[in-house]
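Box 4.2: Ligand-aware structure prediction
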Amino acid sequence: MQIGMVCYPTYGGSGVLATELGHALARRGHSVHFVTYAQPMRLDRFQDNIFYHEVETPSYPLLEFNLYTLALAGKIIDVARYEKLDVLHVHYAIPHAISGFLAREILKGDDGVSLITTLHGTDITLVGLEPSFHPLVKFSLERSEAVTAVSQHLLEKTRQSFDVETTIDVIPNFVDTTVYKRSVSDAMCRQLRRGDEFILMHVSNFRPVKRVQDCVRILQQVRQHVNARLVFVGDGPERSDTERLVRELGLFDHVTFLGKQSALPEILSAADVFLLPSQQESFGLSALEAMACEVPVIATNIGGIPEVVRHGETGYVAELGDVARMARYCIELLTSPKKLEAFRASARRRAVEKFDIELIVPLYEQVYARALQRSA
Ligand code: GMT
C-alpha cells in the first residue's frame, strides 16, 4: 500500500507512535510518506520505503496568521497525486483531520484517497472541546473512512463529548519490545546513579498536564526513608519552574535534568521506578516504554493509564495529586527487593504480551483495508 502519514513531528507520544508505525509498515513492504512541517523526531535513520515531504507555509504581509491547515492540505494533495497514495493516516485530529478531509474532497476527481484518523488525547479531551474547534472535530470524524482511538477511555470520551455515530476502533499504542528492553549500560549507570541510591525517573514533554512538580514532591517524601535520585528526561514549558522548586526544596543534589534524549532504552533501564503523575493521559506511551524496559510505573489512575498499568502487578495507580500515596508506593517497592523484582518481570511481560508492535501493527493494516473497501 502507499500510505500517507500526518503527525506532529515534535516530542510527544502521538508523533512517536506515528513514526514507529511508519517504520513498522515500511518493514512490512508498504511505502510510507510522512507529510509534516519538520522531520519527525524518530525519523532519524534511513529505511527503505520511507519518504519525507516537508510542508512549507507561504508567508505574505497580509497573512498575519499561519495557514498551516491549508498548506498541509495542499501538500497532501500533491503527495497523494504523484505518489498515488491509497490511504492517508492522520494522527491527532486538530488540524490534521480537517486538512485530510479537505485534501480527500479535492482529490475525488483523481483516484481518491481514504482518510483514517487516529485520536490520541487532548485532541478530544481538551483542545477539541474549544467551542470553535468542536464542530470541526465532530465533522472530520464523521467524514473519515475510519477512526481509531488509543484506549477504551478515549473512545468513551469521544462518544460522550462528540456524539459521533462513526465506528471507532480501539487500537492501543505499542512498543517494539526488541528495542525497548532492559539494556544496562555501566557508563550510563555510573553517570546517573551515585553510590547505592535508587533512581526514580520521569520522561515527558514537561507540559502542565504532566504535573512534573509532583515528581519532585514524591522524591522529597521518598528521601525521608530511602536514598533516591530523581532523573528527568525531556524538556518543555514546566522545566524552569520545576528547577526552581527543586532548589527551593533543597533537592538540587538529588535531581538530574537530562533534557531531550534519544537513547531511551538505555536510560530507562537505569531506573528503578517510573513516575507518571499526570492530570490527563489517554494512554501514557512513556509508561509502556518504561514497562518494556522492566521498570514498574507509579502513576495517577487517570484516563487510559489503568488500561496500561496494572495496579499491584506492574506498578501502582493513585488519585490525582496524592503525592503522599505515590511516595508510599515508591518506598514499598524500593524496600522490598523481591516485590520490585516481581513487578519488574510483570511489567515486561505485560508490555510483550499485550502491547508489542508485532501484535498491534496488523490491526492498523486491517483498518486500512476496511477503509479502502469502504471508499470503493
Ligand atoms: O494529547 C496530547 O496532549 C498530546 C499527545 C502527544 O502527542 O503526545 O499525547 C497523547 O497521545 C499519546 C500517544 O497516543 C498518549 O500516550 C498520551 O497519553 C496522550 N496525552 C494525553 O492524553 C494528555
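In the box above, the bound molecule is GMT. The radius of gyration is 21 Å.
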